[in-house]
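Need tokens for this chain, all 513 residues.
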Amino acid sequence: MNNSNSNGDTSLMQKEQSESVHRFTERSGDYYSAEFEKIQSSTRLTLSFNIAAALFGPFWGAARNIWGFFWLSTIAMLFALVQLGRGLWGELGADKLAQAARLGSKSQEMAAKAQVALEAGAANAQALLRNSDNLQRAADKATAAANEAAKGAEQLVIWGAVFLIVVMIFQGLIANLVYEKKYCRWRADYSEKNGFSMMNLLLGSAMLAIMLPLMLYRFTATKPVAWLIEFPADKTVFNSASSWLDSAFDAVAIHGSGFFDGITSGIRVLLDGLEVVLVDTPWPVITLVILFMAWRLAGPRVAIFTVAALAYLAFLGYWEKSMATIALLGAAATLCVVVGVPFGILCAKNRTVDSIARPVLDFMQTMPAFVYLIPIIAFFGTGKPPGILATLIFGMPPVVRLTALGIKQVPPSIVEGALAFGCSRRKLLLDVEIPLAMTSILAGINQTILMCLSMVVIASLIGAEGLGTDVLMALQFAAKGQGLLAGLAILFCAMIIDRIVQGCFKPTGRPAD
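Here are the structure tokens for all 513 residues:
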């Protein structure tokens, strides 16, 4: 009785599965129902071959709404067909033949001049004959190279055909596996596109009809049309846009000079204060302070490493430049933290601000530093404050992102419990959310400090002095030893700061009560 009930349940499930597959595929439901059942019932990789996908890979992928399969199949088949086209009707070695013809023509011209010189008894007749022979030998070499390239046509046809067959077999082997995965996603989420789409089939066919002839023509024609190789851009558009941007930068710099000078002055005050502390203070005092911080915050091992790193900086003459670099770093990191942490909290609290800030932060992180040095120089000139501003742009995103992430990851139950006990929004932020998010915030500060330090070389391009200047000079004059020593100095500065900052929020054990 139990066996009959079990068999009945199994047959009912199989029937429901078959109906579901029929709704999903719309066409060839019986075939796909059997293949999906075979794939799902096996714990190992199941051998399932789809003849339609093997023969019409891109078209099958487009019709079945599997665009990843469509593009991979299209790329592979285009590569194979291009090799076949090059071998069947591509003029391999045509460029070498043209070169040989040009060299042969020049050789004949030189020989004619040599004959005239011999008849006239000129002194350069023998030199002209030697030049003619050299040109002829070069022409013969080009002809031989063209013949060798032409012999490779048969190999291209063979390899292209073999690769095309391999691609078709591979398409047939993976098609049902890929389609079964799509079916499973459709069962979990009915918004997944299913069925046989004639519109997608026509769209895929149209794209192939455009791509295949262009690819074959581009790689098999001796001299393709110029517009296919290089986009026919109008230089006047570029010149007009460049001139307009120059005028815009100049106008903003002139009208906003007071604002930009105020920012520069504020940064200079902060930087001058740090340089007085780090550069002008006697080196034994600074060394003692750094070693005490390393020992108390990060432990004796970091203190020993700090001694070795500071000795390297001192004995190689990098002490003042290292302290100037750390002053630049301190000013940039301070501004990053002062601006970035509150802004990260705002992003976590306000979705509108977060949606606006996210692409801006992406731009700040992905845009090459050399690009945003241009507006920095246009508005603020050169020197240390502009270098700090460039470093600020590069180093701020980590602290903003990780601060926002830490605030968002505070458990809602804790927030609700604090509000239930009468906690105000201000107390909630200061006494609950920020302490719980402190690990993430400090990790963002640490990353910001290291990213700011990595900008010292680029900032030296606009007059920010320090260790970056030595690296820049080494690059300009190919001074390998100088560049390596200065790079190690930057590395040691980064490692000292990283270890001390990590020690600030490393959990320390307490003795048991």
